[in-house]
TrEMBL record:
The keyword DNA-binding applies. It comes from Phyllobacterium myrsinacearum. GO terms for cellular component: cytosol. This is DNA-binding IscR family transcriptional regulator. Keywords: DNA-binding.
C-alpha cells in the first residue's frame, strides 16, 4: 500500500521556504520533491487558502511564507492539505449484516477514532518551528563533526 506523503513533503517545503532568501517557484519545489509543478500548485493552494503561504505570478514570482513557522502547527498543515486518512487499516464492509463483522467494526471504529483524536492533539502541539529547530541542531552537529552534508535549498 502506498503511503500518503503530502504532509511530510509540505512540512519539508515550509522549512526550506523559511531558509530560502527569495521566493521559491513551483518548478523549484517540484524539482526538490521529484514531482510535477502542477501537483505543487494544487497542494500549496490549501496552504495559501489558510494564509500560511502566499504566491506571486510572473517574473520574480513564486511562493513565500506568509506566517512565521512558530505560528503553524503540524495540525494546521494536515488540515490545509485536506486532512488525508491517517490510517491504512479500518473496518470492513463486505458483510454488514454479519454480527461478528458488526462487533469487530464497532471496536475498530472506536479505537481508530480515539487514536486519531490523540494524534491530532499531538499534531496541534508541534510547530514547524520545532521541526526547523531540530534540523538546525542536526545540521550544526554534522558540521561540527566535519562530515559533508548536502542541503537542498
Amino acid at each position: 500500500m502506498r503511503r500518503d506523503s503530502r504532509l511530510s513533503r509540505m512540512l519539508h517545503v515550509l522549512i526550506h521556504m523559511d531558509r530560502h532568501s527569495k521566493r521559491m517557484t513551483s518548478e523549484t519545489i517540484a524539482q526538490m520533491l521529484g514531482t510535477n509543478a502542477v501537483v505543487v500548485r494544487r497542494t500549496m493552494a490549501g496552504l495559501k487558502k489558510q494564509g500560511y503561504v502566499r504566491s506571486e505570478n510572473g517574473h520574480g514570482g513564486g511562493w513565500e511564507l506568509a506566517r512565521d513557522l512558530a505560528g503553524i502547527s503540524l495540525l494546521d498543515v494536515y488540515l490545509a492539505i485536506g486532512a488525508p486518512s491517517l490510517f491504512a487499516i479500518g473496518p470492513s464492509s463486505e458483510n454488514p449484516a454479519c454480527l461478528v463483522e458488526q462487533a469487530v467494526d464497532t471496536a475498530l471504529d472506536d479505537t481508530m477514532r480515539n487514536a486519531e483524536r490523540l494524534l491530532r492533539a499531538r499534531f496541534a502541539e508541534v510547530t514547524i518551528a520545532d521541526l526547523a529547530s531540530d534540523f538546525d541542531q542536526r545540521y550544526a552537529a554534522l558540521q561540527s563533526s566535519g562530515e559533508i552534508c548536502a542541503v537542498k535549498a
